[in-house]
């Protein structure tokens, strides 16, 4: 993957350019060491998940925590009837008659220990290995073409 330098979001908003050392998956923002210290000491952020910035490069997709219909509302519930995440407003309006609405944290309990999760991790690993192999073959083909070009 391309290695892009992620900048500290807090510094960036203050017109400073500082490289991020950690990433908060809840804030969806990078933090330099100074801003990270403030972030970790804020009461509201005590339960947030901060990961090493090197891991962010491996994240290939981003799932928004906000409702597409009500952009200011957080997705807090899972409707088993519709197999969909929903916010409080959606729950009250679109899922009023649904019987199986549970909080996301309850719905996600034990997911990482499930067979399906393990199969997905294995499949992603296999796909990643195939991508790396294809990249290596591509590099060899480019090198071979360059050698042929010199010979011709």
UniProtKB/TrEMBL annotation:
GO terms for molecular function: ubiquitin protein ligase activity; zinc ion binding. PROSITE patterns: ZF_BBOX (PS50119). It holds the Pfam family zf-B_box. The keyword Transcription does not apply. The keyword Protein biosynthesis does not apply. It comes from the Eukaryota. One of its GO terms (cellular component) is nucleoplasm. InterPro entries: TRIM45/56/19-like, Znf_B-box. Residues 62-104 form the B box-type domain. Keywords: Metal-binding, Zinc, Zinc-finger. This is B box-type domain-containing protein. It comes from Mytilus galloprovincialis (Mediterranean mussel).
């Amino acid at each position: 993957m391309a290695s892009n330098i992620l900048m500290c979001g807090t510094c960036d908003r203050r017109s400073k350019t500082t490289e991020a050392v950690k990433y908060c998956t809840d804030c969806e923002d990078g933090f330099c060491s100074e801003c990270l210290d403030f972030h970790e000491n804020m009461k509201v952020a005590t339960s947030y998940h901060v990961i090493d910035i090197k891991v962010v490069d491996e994240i290939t997709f981003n799932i928004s925590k906000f409702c597409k219909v009500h952009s200011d509302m957080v997705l807090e519930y899972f409707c088993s009837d519709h197999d969909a995440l929903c916010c409080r407003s959606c729950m009250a309006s679109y899922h009023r008659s649904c019987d199986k609405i549970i909080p996301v944290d309850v719905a996600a309990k034990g997911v990482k220990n499930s067979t399906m999760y393990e199969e997905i991790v294995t499949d992603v690993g296999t796909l990643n290995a195939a991508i790396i192999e294809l990249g290596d073959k591509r590099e060899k083909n480019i090198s071979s073409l360059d050698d042929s070009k010199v010979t011709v």
